[in-house]
Design goal:
With about 200 residues, the chain is an alpha/beta fold. The protein folds into two domains: about 120 residues, 3-Layer(aba) Sandwich (Rossmann fold), CATH 3.40.50.300; about 70 residues. About 55% of the residues lie in helices and about 15% in strands. It contains nine helices and seven strands, in the order βαβααββααββαααβα. The strands form two sheets. A five-stranded parallel beta sheet has the order 2-5-1-6-7, sandwiched between helices. It has a two-stranded antiparallel sheet with strand order 3-4. Strand 3 and strand 4 form a beta hairpin. The longest helix has 27 residues. The relative contact order is 0.21. This is Dephospho-CoA kinase. Pathway: Cofactor biosynthesis; coenzyme A biosynthesis; CoA from (R)-pantothenate: step 5/5. It is found in: Cytoplasm. GO terms for molecular function: ATP binding; dephospho-CoA kinase activity.
Amino acid sequence: MQNAYFVTSSIAGGKSSFIKIVQNLGFDTLSADVIAHELLNKNANSIAKIFNNDDLIIAGKIDRKKLGAIIFNDLNAKKKLEDFLHPKIKEVILQKAQILDKKNKAFFIELPLFFENNHYHNLGKSILVYTPKEILLQRLMQRDNLDENEALKRINLQLDIEEKLKKADFVIKNTSDYENFEKNVLNFLKHTLKVMNEIL
């Protein structure tokens, strides 16, 4: 797709902040996480059956904390969930992205596991929001109230940020505060992608 940009990073790296900034500027966006949450609830019974655990459902919806506790501690469980969800996520993203692509304007798709799975590589360019591992660790511990071991475990489930850096088409640094990151994003849109005129 000519106008699609896939935005990725590591956990707590700043993907959602990037998406919020471009949304506020008027760009169209999609989020794999939002789509995944919708699909989790839509398929709550099937997911409970996969894990043979009815306690995962509360008021007809998946309890994401309970599910997270399972998949972050068991690679087989994580793979089971991904095998079930990822094809469904891709189907929804493709449907929505093809509609957006026809507008002939840049749009951004937040996709945490862009480099971890190969389903999207030929569909658009990748933008990596880059944050070094030690800063990721501090942010994740603070954001999710995790101890260092638990936070590291979650970071290490994804491809190392330095490996992602080698593979990305574009890189935006997110190494200090939100204000600086916002400036980096605006500079990137104006001078690298040159797409600011598309929303005027």
